[in-house]
């Protein structure tokens, strides 16, 4: 799956494209009940006494939305309303709370693959689907791969991760792994929640099947996350790519249930990080940034946007906040004055590597690296909003992301670019820009032709002044107004003065 599959499609393509259903299971009525957890969904709706429920389906599962809707409607009672959400505002893996609020929903049911980002407004019932997987074969393949491994990075602590569609068999896979592996190896696994309640308390996690894993293991997973061997159950996906990026120091093996094969994934990690490092270097050369709003459902997206604005202003960069829905190259090409974009999206949709985009697109963590004074990167990678905000608060007092208030700073000092191999003069916005121009007035006249000079802190104004075509001139007071003329009358299929109607 291409990393840009979610965002790079145009609106016309979304209407005209065909959905590939080769991987979608053909389900009988009984299998439909089991696959979509109809009984559990009804139980959760009744338990929460929800009256208006939004059902969010991805494109590939829309064909099952009608039978699922009818089965739920027949069991929840006439006093409850169901609404099917078919077209999500951003990625289908995110809970579209904004669309749900349009119908005044008090709960949501999210179907299909989910990024499991923390929501902020509504309780969510997750129905991942239940794709088939053989726990015995999965455990045997992992054990065989670990036995044949000669890597020095292989650890005694194993971290089991699963694609959400296979999470219903996590306990069976975990049991088979512990049986087949030596007692010296420890297997950690954090169960995936199937229901999230929006309360003032921490997120409540419930499971349809009691987990046999040690309840304390999830508490220690963060401790071992960078000193373990990862076992991933699922095919190649954005989830796997993000897992490799955020655990670059770990050995990782993946098991693909449809093909029943296991392979070493760690070899891809260095190439992924090298490509991202190249994007970071391009961000270092940028002076005007566009903050792209790529989600409205992740809980911390508003504090993160405020954090990015503050950080860019501190580094004397200009920023614009833009909400364009699903991204595509044509949309972003309209903002030529912006030299680099920062995408605020869920972890699975944050990495945009398409070469079709005119400007580079970085993640919030990559932006922090680009703005640091020292050009160093350990390879550590963070996609979680809360972690990015927490780490910045630790470094904020040290001003490691720029020190615009230094008295000894030379504003004309050139900056060396690793991308072009040349020195460049960085543009500065804010207080230093006013010092350079010597005038902080909002608008001043450039000449007698009513051409307006640029704002002291306006990157768009400077870009406009550099263009050869700036739009039609108003020429107020120099051109006489035109005489009004009677236009056509009638309807479009045949106007009154159209000879074809006579």
Textual characterization of the structure:
The protein has 502 residues and is an alpha/beta fold. It is 30% helix and 14% strand. Among the domains are: 11-127, Rossmann fold, CATH 3.40.50.11840; 135-264, Diphthamide synthesis DPH1/DPH2 domain 2 (Rossmann fold, 3-Layer(aba) Sandwich), CATH 3.40.50. The protein contains 16 helices and 18 strands. The strands form five sheets. It has a five-stranded mixed beta sheet with strand order 2-1-3-4-7. A five-stranded mixed beta sheet has the order 6-5-8-9-10, with helices on both faces. A four-stranded parallel beta sheet has the order 12-11-13-14. Helix 3 packs across helix 4, helix 6 crosses helix 7 (170-180) and helix 11 packs parallel to helix 14 (385-395). The protein is flat and about 90 Å long. Its main location: cytoplasm. InterPro entries: DHP2 (IPR010014), DPH1/DPH2 (IPR016435), DPH1/DPH2_1 (IPR042263), DPH1/DPH2_3 (IPR042265).
Principal-axes geometry comes out as: flat
Instruction: Give the strand content.
Output: 5-15%
According to CATH, the homologous superfamily of the domain at 135-264 is Diphthamide synthesis DPH1/DPH2 domain 2
How large, in whole angstroms, is the Cα Rg? 28 Å
What count of helical segments does DSSP give?
A: 16
**Portion of residues in helices?**
25-40%
């Amino acid at each position: 799956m291409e990393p840009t599959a979610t965002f790079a499609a145009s609106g016309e393509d979304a209407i005209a494209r065909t959905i590939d259903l080769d991987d979608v299971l053909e389900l009988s009525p009984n299998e439909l009940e089991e696959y979509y957890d109809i009984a559990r969904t009804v139980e959760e709706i009744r338990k929460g006494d929800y009256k208006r429920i939004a059902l969010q389906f991805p494109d590939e599962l829309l064909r099952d939305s009608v039978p699922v809707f009818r089965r739920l409607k027949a069991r929840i009672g006439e006093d409850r309303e169901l609404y099917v959400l078919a077209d999500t505002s951003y990625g289908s893996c995110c809970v579209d709370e904004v669309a749900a609020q349009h119908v005044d929903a008090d709960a949501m049911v999210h179907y299909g693959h989910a990024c499991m980002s923390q929501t902020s407004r509504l309780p969510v019932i997750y129905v991942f689907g239940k794709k088939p997987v053989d726990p015995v074969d999965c455990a045997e393949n992992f054990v065989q791969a670990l036995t044949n491994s000669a890597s020095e990075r292989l650890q005694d602590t194993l971290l089991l991760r699963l694609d959400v569609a296979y999470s219903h068999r996590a306990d069976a896979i975990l049991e088979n792994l512990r049986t087949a592996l030596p007692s010296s190896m420890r297997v950690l696994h954090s169960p995936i929640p199937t229901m999230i309640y929006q309360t003032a308390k921490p997120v409540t996690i419930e499971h349809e099947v009691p987990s046999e894993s040690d309840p304390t293991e999830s508490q220690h997973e963060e401790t071992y996350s960078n000193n373990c061997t990862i076992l991933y159950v699922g095919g190649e996906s954005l989830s796997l790519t993000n897992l490799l990026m955020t655990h670059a120091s770990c050995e990782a093996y993946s098991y693909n249930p449809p093909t029943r094969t296991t392979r070493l994934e760690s070899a891809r990690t260095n190439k992924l990080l090298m490509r991202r490092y190249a994007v970071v270097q391009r961000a270092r050369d940028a002076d005007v940034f566009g903050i792209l709003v790529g989600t409205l459902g992740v809980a911390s997206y508003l504090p993160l946007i405020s954090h990015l604005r503050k950080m860019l202003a501190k580094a004397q960069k200009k920023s614009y906040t833009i909400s364009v829905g699903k991204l595509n190259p044509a949309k972003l090409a309209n903002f030529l004055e912006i030299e680099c974009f920062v995408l605020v999206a869920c972890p699975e949709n944050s990495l945009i590597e398409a070469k079709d985009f005119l400007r580079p697109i970085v993640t919030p963590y990559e932006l922090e690296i680009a703005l640091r004074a020292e050009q160093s990167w350990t390879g550590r990678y963070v996609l979680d909003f809360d972690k990015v905000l927490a780490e910045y608060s630790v470094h904020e007092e040290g001003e490691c992301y720029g020190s615009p208030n230094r008295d000894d700073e030379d504003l004309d000092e050139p900056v060396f670019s690793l991308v072009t191999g040349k020195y460049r003069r960085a543009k500065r916005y804010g207080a230093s820009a006013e010092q350079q121009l010597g005038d902080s007035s909002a608008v001043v006249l450039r000449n007698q032709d009513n051409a307006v000079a640029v704002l002291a802190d306006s990157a768009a104004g400077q870009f406009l002044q550099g263009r050869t075509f700036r739009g039609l001139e108003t020429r107020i007071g120099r051109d006489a107004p035109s005489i009004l003329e009677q236009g056509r009358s009638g309807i479009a299929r045949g106007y009154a003065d159209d000879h074809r109607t006579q």
